[in-house]
Amino acid sequence: MGKVHETLNDRLREFISKQPVYFVATAPEHGGHVNMSPKGYPDTFAIVDDTTVAYLDLDGSGVETIAHIRDNGRVTIMFAAFQGPPNIVRLYGRGRVVTPHDEDFDELIKLFGPHPGVRSVIVVECDRISDSCGYSVPFMTFDKDRPLLDQWAQRKDVQQKRAYRAKHNRESIDGLPGLTTDETDPVTRHS
Questions:
Q1: Taking the CB of the first residue and of the last residue of the chain, which one, N or C, has fewer CB atoms within 10 A?
Q2: Is there a domain that residue 152 lies in?
């Protein structure tokens, strides 16, 4: 059934690259709400090396993942097969938030496709890589990506994005710090 892997081998890399959606789970250190976020756009996820992955963090309604990672670093990313053979891959690890103010942002952003509304890059050093059967996961058909998030971000000018992030992304639903004041400025260079 389930197996733990030392690294992201070729089979796991191939499986991950074919999934149109993945899920990111985090939780605050002390109490509060567990958060699980679905992520789309296949060009927002990258395997950096055998035990490191990264994904593009785009504008959204909340800032739970950033707040939780800054609180304790714990993060789990899950991929599930909705087509083909059943499989679930979970990447457990320690995350870090890389903003446009950080030295390695310019190199990391090159790993992803073009998207407006970039807030940060989330980098995860995996300390456990596992897969399991996924026998009960239903078959589902992928039609296409929804362009709505990119379209929403393209309609906003710099001031509108800054105001949105200031209102919705400064703290988590549990009051943990999210984006700082200078991090609410929209990225002028996007992926």
A1: N
A2: yes
In a domain, residue 189? The reply is no
Structural domain range at position 113: 3-184
149 in a domain, yes or no? yes
Q: How many domains does the chain have?
A: 1
- The owner of tokens 């789990």 is 76
> Up-side HSE of residue 21: CA atoms within 13 Å toward CB?
15
Instruction: From 26, 14, 6, select the one nearest 87 (Cα to Cα).
Output: 14
**Which CATH number do you get for residue 170?**
2.30.110.10
What does the chain come to in residues?
191
The set of residues, in sequence order, having a beta carbon less than 8 Å from that of 137 and lying 6+ positions away, is 80, 81, 82, 86, 88
The 3-state DSSP class for residue 30 equals coil
Distance CA 190, CA 164 (A): 18
Question: Could you read off the pLDDT of 3-50 as tens digits, one per residue?
Answer: 999 999 999 999 999 999 999 999 999 999 999 999 999 899 999 999
Q: What would the mean pLDDT of 110-119 be, rounded to a whole number?
A: 94
Res 188 pLDDT > 60: no
Compute the average pLDDT of residues 146-157: 92
